[in-house]
Each structure stands twice: as C-alpha cells, then as structure tokens.
Design goal:
Elements (H helix, E strand, L loop, with lengths): L9 H9 L7 H14 L16 H10 L4 H17 L2 H6 L3 H7 L5 E6 L5 E6 L5 H9 L2 H27 L7 E6 L5 H21 L4 E7 L5 H8 L5 H4 L2 E5 L3 H7 L25 H7 L7 E4 L2 E4 L3
Parallel strand pairs: 2-3, 3-4, 4-5
Antiparallel strand pairs: 1-2, 6-7
Length: 310
C-alpha cells in the first residue's frame, strides 16, 4: 500500500472489500494446527462432557492471520495465550464492573446493534465525539486501567457480539466486524493527542485478536489524512492495512452495497436513527434472541446470554 491512501471510487471499494480469498485446504490446516497446539499443551479437544478449550472460529482467525502457515500461527497463538495469562484476561473480564464498561465504550468503536449483508456486526468510531473534555477524562485514567478497558471491550466483542451474530448467521461463522471510522470535524491536533491511545489499542488487537476486522471504511476524511496515515500505517500488519478503504464525503453508495440501508446510520446515507453516543439499536431478529442489550461482562453461549459478573 502506498504511503498515502487513494480515495477509492465506490465501485473500486466494493470490489476490494468483498473479494476475500478462501484457502482450499483450510480444513486440513485447521486439523494440523489443532494437533500442534495439543502437543504443545495449548489446546484440549472436546470430550463427552467438556467443550474444546478453544472453538474452531478462534483457531481459524490465527490461521488466517498467518496465511495458514501452521508454525507461524502456533507462535502467535502461544504468544497470545502467554499474554492472556500475564494480564489475567479471563478474570479481568469476569469481574469488570458493568458501569465502568459502559462508560468506557464512549472512547472506542461502538456496535450499532446492526449487521451487514453477510451477518457481520457493524461498528462505528466517530473521532469527533472524543472532544476535549472526553480526551481529558481519558488521560486522567491510569494507563494500566486504560489498557484493561480495551481488553475488556475486545473480550465483550469476541465473547458476546461475535457469537451472537454467528448464531444468527448459522451455519456461516462470524468472526470479524465491519467498522466505519468517521473523521468528520476532527482536527489534526485532536488526532495528535489521541495517537498514543489509538496506537496501544491497535497494536494490542493486531497481536492478540487477529482477524477480527473484516472491513474498515473511513468516511469524511480531512485534507490532512495523508499525514495521519503516515502516523498510523505502521500500527497494522499488511493484511489489516489492505482492509482499510477511503470512501470520501459520500460513503452512502458503497456502504449500501455492504449493509442494508435500514441498518446504516443516517449520517452515512442510511435510514437508521443511531448516533455514536447511543446504545446499540438492536434489529428485530436480535431482539427476539436476547431482548435488550445486556450491560457489563456477558457471554453468548448456546443461543442465550450468560452473565459472568463475579
């Protein structure tokens, strides 16, 4: 990818976004991956009364991140397992206070409560919503706790939102999200003040939650975006960089090719009366499954919500 991102036409963007190569031998690679992980003590298969230690969807994310190179995937998986133990991720998520989790969502990409045409959850990140008071509030949080908040929200995505959407899209698994990043009314100084915060989140996610980003559609990009891109391009691996697409000031045509119009926020050419500051506006199908959006650390398991707050 060049140093600056071209402003793709809607047709070019759709082609780039929707062309996802599929490996013919991914099933064989998955079984080989499981065998290596099991031999290394990193994976336990399912038994009569116990679920597998990791589901196939998670294992396939690591394989895709390393282009089905089993040895490289094992290295990343092993590093992630060590990272999870170091940060006590399972316990962190289980005991994360519900009000703090809901408050933390104001600083990160938020689920709209809707899905794209392939069943992937649609997230939005409106940077201008992180105004000066919110940025000051963010900086007042100790760096360790800021990091833990990011982890907790990624756990919420991978353990609730993605399993819920997989349940609805069955038998097609859902392991990634479509994200709209809105740069309207964002100043260069605001982006500069957020750069360290955004870098920490991006680096952590790339290393430990691989292949959870399917498409990143950047809308309302300012004239200084090439400068921003020079800062951020090194935060992502090549695979993630290739998923970033610039849709310009009129993203509606491209987004409507990816997401039903009723599920696109009105700000981006759709019909959904949802703003970044809002809670998820669940579609009717999701409402039938879970009722309303739960607060705090919850799981979606076997077709239902499980509260894990300790």
């Amino acid at each position: 990818m060049p140093d600056t991102l071209p402003h793709s036409t809607p047709e070019e963007s759709v082609a780039a976004i929707t062309s996802t190569p599929v490996s013919d031998d991914r099933g064989q690679s998955l079984e080989a991956f499981k065998a290596k992980l099991r031999n290394a003590g990193l994976y336990q298969p399912a038994s009569d009364d116990t679920a597998a230690s990791h589901d196939d969807i998670t294992l396939l994310r690591f394989l895709r991140a390393r282009r089905y190179d089993v040895d490289k995937a094992q290295k990343q998986f092993s590093d992630t397992e060590a990272w999870r133990k170091q940060h006590n991720v399972d316990e962190l998520f289980r005991t994360f206070e519900a009000n703090e989790m809901e408050s933390a969502r104001r600083f990160y990409p938020r689920w709209t409560g809707r899905r794209d045409k392939t069943g992937l959850p649609v997230y939005v990140y409106r940077l201008a919503s992180l105004d000066a008071p919110l940025r000051k509030e963010l900086e007042s949080v100790p760096s360790v706790r800021r990091y833990q908040r990011i982890v907790a929200l990624y756990e919420a995505m991978t353990r609730f939102v993605l399993p819920l959407c997989s349940h609805l899209a069955a038998p097609t698994p859902v392991s990634s999200v479509t994200t709209i990043i809105d740069l309207e009314q964002v100043s260069l100084s605001a982006m500069w003040s957020l750069r360290s915060h955004l870098q920490v989140a991006s680096t952590m996610a790339t290393a430990n939650y691989p292949e959870t980003l399917n498409t990143i559609a950047i809308v309302n990009s300012p004239s200084f975006f090439p400068t921003i891109w020079n800062w951020i391009k090194t935060w992502f691996d090549e695979g993630t960089r290739n998923k970033i697409h610039i849709l310009g000031k009129d993203p509606g045509p491209t987004l409507r090719s990816l997401i039903n119009e009723k599920d696109i926020p009105q700000s981006y050419g759709g019909q959904l009366p949802w703003k970044f500051e809002d809670d998820p506006d669940l579609d009717d199908t999701i409402k039938k499954i879970i009722g309303k959006m739960p607060k705090g650390p919850v799981l979606f398991v076997d077709g239902s919500t499980v509260n894990v707050l300790g």
